[in-house]
């Protein structure tokens, strides 16, 4: 019975990977996502939907992004020179699934910040269940401020939408670094890639997006 239960998830995960490949996601990210048991990161009642192409509620007004969104953001961060991507900061741990995918890519240093203590604790439980917790540095705090003590970061991934790019995060991005984030522009969200060069910033609008708002300490409830 137990074996059949897990086989069902394996089959669903295989179908998700095939779908993402058809949607244009490349091999490194596909391999990483194939190695992460997404169903361990969602509510038990929703586990049969874990590999469907949809976002799912986590409680506390938060969601886990649909697989394609996670894959696309990861691929944008990974870029063409992944060997330079060593220290990565994730803003908005949520359930920990995006963290797990970054870990599965083999990135050496990953820091993840979550503002909501219950989600922070739950993400640690999920990563522990997936056998990945020891590799991530989990912080409960205001992601808008980043982690200046650990900066600079080669990559910064923001999984909630601010109305403008947080200045502290721009300042903590290394030269040659990449930031991937959704921006809320008057109620319409777009996913952006920000690349920091010695001459300044290069900004690329990628696609429409749909994320929960990025909340800072000053406007937190």
From TrEMBL:
The active site is at residue 65. InterPro entries: PCMT (IPR000682), SAM-dependent_MTases_sf (IPR029063). It catalyses: [protein]-L-isoaspartate + S-adenosyl-L-methionine = [protein]-L-isoaspartate alpha-methyl ester + S-adenosyl-L-homocysteine. GO terms for biological process: methylation; protein repair. The keyword Cytoplasm applies. GO terms for cellular component: cytoplasm. It is found in: Cytoplasm. Its EC number is 2.1.1.77. It is an enzyme of class 2 (transferase). Keywords: Cytoplasm, Methyltransferase, S-adenosyl-L-methionine, Transferase. Belongs to the methyltransferase superfamily. L-isoaspartyl/D-aspartyl protein methyltransferase family. NCBIfam families: pimt, PRK00312.1. This is Protein-L-isoaspartate O-methyltransferase. It comes from Uruburuella suis. The gene is pcm.
